[in-house]
Amino acid sequence: MRPELGEYLQSRRARVSPEEAGLPNGAARRVPGLRREEVAMLANVSVDYYIRLEQGRAGNPSETVLGAVADALRLTAAERAHLFSLAAPSQRTSPPPAEVRPQLAAMIQALRDVPAIVVDRLTNVLAWNDGAALILADFAELPVEQRNLTRMHFLDPAMRDLHGNWEQVARDAVAQLRHASVGYASDPEMAALVSELSSASPEFAAYWNAHDVATRSPCAKVLNHPTAGRLSFSLESLVLPADDGQYVMTYTPTDEPTRTALLAAASAS
Q1: How many whole angstroms separate alpha carbon 157 and alpha carbon 159?
Q2: 4-87 — its CATH code?
Q3: Can you tell me the distance from the alpha carbon of 49 to that of 268, in angstroms, rounded to the nearest whole number?
Q4: Which ranges of the chain have pLDDT less than 70?
Q5: Fold classification of 102-268 (topology level)
Q6: Distance between CA 171 and CA 182 in Å, rounded?
Protein backbone atom coordinates (compact mmCIF):
# COMPACT_ATOMS: atom_id res chain seq x y z
CA MET A 1 0.00 0.00 0.00
CA ARG A 2 1.12 3.55 -0.67
CA PRO A 3 1.47 6.35 1.93
CA GLU A 4 -1.56 8.06 0.38
CA LEU A 5 -3.83 5.54 2.14
CA GLY A 6 -2.92 6.81 5.61
CA GLU A 7 -3.10 10.45 4.52
CA TYR A 8 -6.52 9.83 3.03
CA LEU A 9 -7.89 8.10 6.13
CA GLN A 10 -6.59 10.90 8.34
CA SER A 11 -8.20 13.55 6.14
CA ARG A 12 -11.56 11.75 6.17
CA ARG A 13 -11.35 11.13 9.92
CA ALA A 14 -10.76 14.82 10.57
CA ARG A 15 -13.89 15.68 8.63
CA VAL A 16 -16.37 13.68 10.74
CA SER A 17 -17.52 15.18 14.04
CA PRO A 18 -18.36 12.98 17.04
CA GLU A 19 -21.95 14.22 16.85
CA GLU A 20 -22.24 13.09 13.22
CA ALA A 21 -20.97 9.66 14.21
CA GLY A 22 -23.40 9.43 17.13
CA LEU A 23 -20.67 9.74 19.76
CA PRO A 24 -20.42 12.06 22.77
CA ASN A 25 -18.11 15.00 22.21
CA GLY A 26 -16.57 14.79 25.67
CA ALA A 27 -13.39 16.62 26.61
CA ALA A 28 -11.70 19.22 24.43
CA ARG A 29 -9.99 17.73 21.38
CA ARG A 30 -6.55 18.62 20.13
CA VAL A 31 -7.51 17.84 16.51
CA PRO A 32 -10.81 18.10 14.65
CA GLY A 33 -12.91 15.07 13.87
CA LEU A 34 -12.77 11.56 15.22
CA ARG A 35 -9.95 9.96 17.16
CA ARG A 36 -8.38 6.74 15.85
CA GLU A 37 -9.88 4.72 18.66
CA GLU A 38 -13.33 6.05 17.82
CA VAL A 39 -13.02 5.01 14.19
CA ALA A 40 -11.80 1.59 15.32
CA MET A 41 -14.80 1.20 17.63
CA LEU A 42 -17.26 2.26 14.94
CA ALA A 43 -15.65 -0.11 12.41
CA ASN A 44 -15.47 -2.96 14.94
CA VAL A 45 -11.72 -3.44 14.56
CA SER A 46 -8.98 -3.18 17.16
CA VAL A 47 -7.33 0.17 17.77
CA ASP A 48 -3.94 -1.39 16.99
CA TYR A 49 -5.20 -2.66 13.64
CA TYR A 50 -6.67 0.68 12.66
CA ILE A 51 -3.43 2.47 13.58
CA ARG A 52 -1.51 0.00 11.41
CA LEU A 53 -4.01 0.61 8.61
CA GLU A 54 -3.36 4.37 8.73
CA GLN A 55 0.37 3.68 8.82
CA GLY A 56 0.20 1.35 5.81
CA ARG A 57 1.28 -1.68 7.86
CA ALA A 58 -1.97 -3.66 7.81
CA GLY A 59 -1.10 -5.93 4.91
CA ASN A 60 -4.05 -6.50 2.62
CA PRO A 61 -7.20 -5.42 4.45
CA SER A 62 -10.34 -7.32 3.53
CA GLU A 63 -13.26 -5.75 1.71
CA THR A 64 -15.31 -6.27 4.87
CA VAL A 65 -12.88 -4.24 6.97
CA LEU A 66 -12.57 -1.51 4.35
CA GLY A 67 -16.34 -1.34 4.04
CA ALA A 68 -16.72 -1.00 7.80
CA VAL A 69 -14.11 1.78 7.91
CA ALA A 70 -15.84 3.51 5.00
CA ASP A 71 -19.14 3.36 6.88
CA ALA A 72 -17.53 4.70 10.06
CA LEU A 73 -16.05 7.62 8.13
CA ARG A 74 -19.34 8.27 6.30
CA LEU A 75 -17.70 8.09 2.88
CA THR A 76 -19.58 8.84 -0.31
CA ALA A 77 -19.66 6.27 -3.12
CA ALA A 78 -16.76 8.00 -4.87
CA GLU A 79 -14.75 8.23 -1.63
CA ARG A 80 -15.42 4.58 -0.84
CA ALA A 81 -14.18 3.51 -4.29
CA HIS A 82 -11.09 5.68 -3.79
CA LEU A 83 -10.38 4.01 -0.43
CA PHE A 84 -10.58 0.55 -1.99
CA SER A 85 -8.27 1.63 -4.81
CA LEU A 86 -5.69 3.03 -2.40
CA ALA A 87 -5.75 -0.18 -0.36
CA ALA A 88 -5.08 -2.29 -3.44
CA PRO A 89 -3.41 0.00 -6.00
CA SER A 90 -2.99 -1.05 -9.59
CA GLN A 91 0.31 -2.73 -10.38
CA ARG A 92 0.51 -0.96 -13.74
CA THR A 93 3.48 1.39 -13.63
CA SER A 94 3.70 2.88 -17.12
CA PRO A 95 0.63 4.62 -18.54
CA PRO A 96 0.16 4.15 -22.28
CA PRO A 97 0.74 7.06 -24.66
CA ALA A 98 -2.25 9.39 -24.87
CA GLU A 99 -3.33 9.11 -28.49
CA VAL A 100 -6.77 9.82 -29.90
CA ARG A 101 -8.24 7.28 -32.29
CA PRO A 102 -9.01 8.87 -35.68
CA GLN A 103 -12.61 7.63 -35.44
CA LEU A 104 -13.02 9.44 -32.12
CA ALA A 105 -11.56 12.68 -33.46
CA ALA A 106 -13.92 12.46 -36.45
CA MET A 107 -16.89 11.87 -34.14
CA ILE A 108 -16.43 15.07 -32.14
CA GLN A 109 -15.86 17.07 -35.34
CA ALA A 110 -19.25 15.83 -36.52
CA LEU A 111 -20.88 17.41 -33.43
CA ARG A 112 -21.23 20.78 -35.14
CA ASP A 113 -23.75 22.24 -32.69
CA VAL A 114 -22.21 20.77 -29.54
CA PRO A 115 -18.76 21.85 -28.30
CA ALA A 116 -16.72 18.75 -27.42
CA ILE A 117 -13.22 17.79 -26.34
CA VAL A 118 -11.32 14.56 -25.71
CA VAL A 119 -9.33 14.57 -22.45
CA ASP A 120 -6.94 12.05 -20.90
CA ARG A 121 -6.41 10.98 -17.27
CA LEU A 122 -4.29 14.10 -16.63
CA THR A 123 -6.93 16.40 -18.18
CA ASN A 124 -4.71 17.02 -21.20
CA VAL A 125 -6.92 18.13 -24.09
CA LEU A 126 -6.11 15.70 -26.91
CA ALA A 127 -8.73 16.72 -29.47
CA TRP A 128 -11.44 19.37 -29.81
CA ASN A 129 -13.98 20.69 -32.27
CA ASP A 130 -14.62 24.25 -33.41
CA GLY A 131 -17.32 24.79 -30.78
CA ALA A 132 -14.93 23.94 -27.95
CA ALA A 133 -12.31 26.30 -29.39
CA LEU A 134 -14.95 29.05 -29.38
CA ILE A 135 -16.18 28.66 -25.80
CA LEU A 136 -13.07 27.42 -23.93
CA ALA A 137 -9.81 28.33 -25.66
CA ASP A 138 -8.15 28.19 -29.03
CA PHE A 139 -6.21 25.06 -28.18
CA ALA A 140 -4.44 25.08 -31.57
CA GLU A 141 -2.72 28.33 -30.54
CA LEU A 142 -1.46 26.86 -27.25
CA PRO A 143 1.77 24.87 -26.91
CA VAL A 144 1.00 21.19 -26.40
CA GLU A 145 2.20 21.26 -22.78
CA GLN A 146 -0.29 24.05 -21.98
CA ARG A 147 -3.34 22.17 -23.30
CA ASN A 148 -4.30 20.91 -19.86
CA LEU A 149 -7.62 21.85 -18.26
CA THR A 150 -6.42 21.65 -14.67
CA ARG A 151 -3.33 23.73 -15.42
CA MET A 152 -5.50 26.27 -17.24
CA HIS A 153 -7.93 26.50 -14.31
CA PHE A 154 -5.14 27.53 -11.94
CA LEU A 155 -2.59 29.33 -14.12
CA ASP A 156 -4.69 31.08 -16.78
CA PRO A 157 -6.46 34.19 -15.39
CA ALA A 158 -8.99 34.04 -18.23
CA MET A 159 -10.41 30.81 -16.81
CA ARG A 160 -11.35 32.56 -13.57
CA ASP A 161 -13.35 35.10 -15.55
CA LEU A 162 -14.90 32.41 -17.75
CA HIS A 163 -16.24 30.45 -14.77
CA GLY A 164 -18.34 32.57 -12.42
CA ASN A 165 -18.12 29.78 -9.84
CA TRP A 166 -14.38 29.31 -10.39
CA GLU A 167 -13.59 28.11 -6.86
CA GLN A 168 -16.07 25.22 -7.06
CA VAL A 169 -14.92 24.34 -10.58
CA ALA A 170 -11.29 24.35 -9.42
CA ARG A 171 -12.04 22.21 -6.33
CA ASP A 172 -13.91 19.71 -8.49
CA ALA A 173 -11.05 19.58 -11.00
CA VAL A 174 -8.55 18.74 -8.25
CA ALA A 175 -10.88 16.18 -6.67
CA GLN A 176 -11.28 14.46 -10.04
CA LEU A 177 -7.53 14.53 -10.62
CA ARG A 178 -6.97 13.02 -7.16
CA HIS A 179 -9.46 10.26 -8.03
CA ALA A 180 -7.56 9.53 -11.26
CA SER A 181 -4.19 9.47 -9.48
CA VAL A 182 -4.64 5.92 -8.14
CA GLY A 183 -4.88 4.35 -11.61
CA TYR A 184 -1.19 3.43 -11.65
CA ALA A 185 1.29 2.43 -8.97
CA SER A 186 3.70 4.98 -10.45
CA ASP A 187 2.71 7.72 -12.86
CA PRO A 188 5.58 10.16 -13.46
CA GLU A 189 3.43 12.48 -15.57
CA MET A 190 0.82 12.77 -12.83
CA ALA A 191 3.54 13.39 -10.24
CA ALA A 192 5.11 16.08 -12.42
CA LEU A 193 1.77 17.85 -12.96
CA VAL A 194 0.90 17.81 -9.26
CA SER A 195 4.38 19.07 -8.33
CA GLU A 196 4.25 21.89 -10.88
CA LEU A 197 0.81 23.10 -9.84
CA SER A 198 1.49 22.74 -6.11
CA SER A 199 4.52 25.02 -6.52
CA ALA A 200 2.81 27.52 -8.80
CA SER A 201 -0.58 27.76 -7.07
CA PRO A 202 -1.19 27.82 -3.30
CA GLU A 203 -4.87 27.19 -4.05
CA PHE A 204 -4.08 24.00 -5.95
CA ALA A 205 -1.77 22.84 -3.15
CA ALA A 206 -4.48 23.43 -0.55
CA TYR A 207 -7.15 21.61 -2.55
CA TRP A 208 -4.80 18.70 -3.32
CA ASN A 209 -3.79 18.32 0.32
CA ALA A 210 -7.46 18.19 1.32
CA HIS A 211 -7.59 14.69 -0.30
CA ASP A 212 -11.13 15.23 -1.60
CA VAL A 213 -12.12 12.93 -4.47
CA ALA A 214 -14.90 13.10 -7.02
CA THR A 215 -15.98 11.28 -10.13
CA ARG A 216 -17.22 13.04 -13.23
CA SER A 217 -20.97 13.39 -13.42
CA PRO A 218 -23.47 15.33 -15.55
CA CYS A 219 -23.90 18.91 -14.43
CA ALA A 220 -25.04 22.35 -15.52
CA LYS A 221 -22.27 24.61 -16.78
CA VAL A 222 -22.51 28.38 -17.11
CA LEU A 223 -19.72 30.28 -18.85
CA ASN A 224 -19.18 34.04 -18.93
CA HIS A 225 -17.77 34.31 -22.44
CA PRO A 226 -15.83 37.55 -23.12
CA THR A 227 -17.66 38.22 -26.41
CA ALA A 228 -20.65 35.86 -26.56
CA GLY A 229 -21.87 36.66 -23.05
CA ARG A 230 -23.57 34.22 -20.69
CA LEU A 231 -23.66 30.69 -22.11
CA SER A 232 -25.58 27.80 -20.53
CA PHE A 233 -24.77 24.16 -21.16
CA SER A 234 -25.43 20.65 -19.95
CA LEU A 235 -22.01 19.08 -19.42
CA GLU A 236 -21.57 15.34 -19.95
CA SER A 237 -18.35 13.37 -19.41
CA LEU A 238 -18.37 10.11 -21.32
CA VAL A 239 -15.74 7.58 -20.25
CA LEU A 240 -14.08 5.61 -23.04
CA PRO A 241 -13.34 2.13 -21.61
CA ALA A 242 -11.19 1.10 -24.57
CA ASP A 243 -8.97 4.18 -24.39
CA ASP A 244 -7.43 3.85 -20.92
CA GLY A 245 -8.39 6.99 -19.02
CA GLN A 246 -9.69 9.08 -21.90
CA TYR A 247 -13.16 10.61 -21.92
CA VAL A 248 -15.26 12.92 -24.08
CA MET A 249 -16.69 16.10 -22.58
CA THR A 250 -19.70 17.53 -24.43
CA TYR A 251 -21.30 20.94 -23.84
CA THR A 252 -24.91 20.81 -25.02
CA PRO A 253 -26.60 24.25 -25.17
CA THR A 254 -29.61 24.41 -22.86
CA ASP A 255 -31.30 27.61 -24.07
CA GLU A 256 -31.93 29.51 -27.28
CA PRO A 257 -29.68 32.50 -26.41
CA THR A 258 -26.72 30.11 -26.05
CA ARG A 259 -27.47 28.39 -29.37
CA THR A 260 -27.84 31.78 -31.07
CA ALA A 261 -24.59 33.10 -29.53
CA LEU A 262 -22.68 30.01 -30.69
CA LEU A 263 -23.98 30.39 -34.24
CA ALA A 264 -23.08 34.08 -34.25
CA ALA A 265 -19.59 33.43 -32.87
CA ALA A 266 -19.03 30.65 -35.42
CA SER A 267 -20.13 32.93 -38.29
CA ALA A 268 -17.80 35.71 -37.12
CA SER A 269 -14.76 33.47 -36.76
Answers
A1: 5
A2: 1.10.260.40
A3: 65
A4: 1-2, 26-27, 89-94, 185, 268-269
A5: Beta-Lactamase (3.30.450)
A6: 18
